[in-house]
Amino acid sequence: MSKRDFKKYIAELKRKDLQEQLLDMYERFDEVKKYYDFIFNPQEDKLLDQAKFKISKEYFPVNRRKPKMRRSVAQKIIREYSKLEMAPDVLAEIMFYNVEIAQTFARGKDNISSAFEKSMYKSFEQAVSFLIENGILEAYKERIRKITVESHEQKWSNSYQFVSLADRVL
After folding, report:
1. Is 77 helix (H, G, I), strand (E, B) or coil?
2. CA-CA distance, 51 to 93, in Å (whole number)?
3. Which of the two residues, 108 and 72, has the higher pLDDT score?
4. 42: confidence class by pLDDT, cuts 50, 70, 90
5. CB 59 within 8 A of CB 69
6. Is the model more confident about 6 or about 130?
7. pLDDT range class, residue 6, cuts 50, 70, 90
8. At what angle do helices 88-106 and 114-134 cross, to 10 degrees?
9. CA angle, 155 as apex, 150 and 158 as ends, to 5°?
10. CA-based diameter of the chain, in Å?
């Protein structure tokens, strides 16, 4: 169904029928429930803490399992929160936290793969682009510097990319 057809359909519905359909969707679909829960009670601080906990568990599991180090977990959270139209500074915080916790995990480890390093650079690059798009780069300059220095100190094979990106935006 096209958007035009959908608009025509809902315009023809009676108010009570539309309310019933919305209530049904709220009860049936988690996405709809999350959306309305966020709209009426954003609690961005709580969601930020939840996101940080989920991301940190990837590198420092609470039950002594082997760390999974999946970038996809953070990416999924960022996508989900973007759909909710969360404040840009909260999303940026999650993006930078993801890179910083990964660097904390990698510190002192000899077996960090180049795929891991490339993945973290991709996350860093996306975070910096997000800052620029949303006009909040100034507030994150120090964190950009710290991440860049850390990649160099850990002798990541792609640390030159971190340096190059930082030089372009700082």
Report:
1. helix
2. 10
3. 72
4. confident
5. yes
6. 130
7. confident
8. 160
9. 90
10. 65
C-alpha to C-alpha distance for 170 and 165, rounded to whole angstroms:
9
Half-sphere exposure of 82 (CA within 13 A, CB side): 12
Quote the tokens at residue 43.
């609690």
Average pLDDT of the chain, as a whole number? 92
Which tokens go with 80?
């989900």
109 near 149, Cβ under 8 Å?
Answer: no
Residue corresponding to tokens 């910083």: 100
Give me the residue label for tokens 């601080």.
Answer: 45
Helices 44-59 & 88-106, crossing angle to 10 degrees?
Answer: 20
pLDDT at 139: 95
**HEC-encoded secondary structure of the chain:** CCHHHHHHHHHHCCHHHHHHHHHHHHHHCHHHHHHHHHHHCCCHHHHHHHHHHHHHHHHCCCCCCCCCCCHHHHHHHHHHHHHCCCCHHHHHHHHHHHHHHHHHHHCCCCCCCHHHHHHHHHHHHHHHHHHHHHCCHHHHHHHHHHHHHHHHHCCCCCHHHHHHHHHHHC
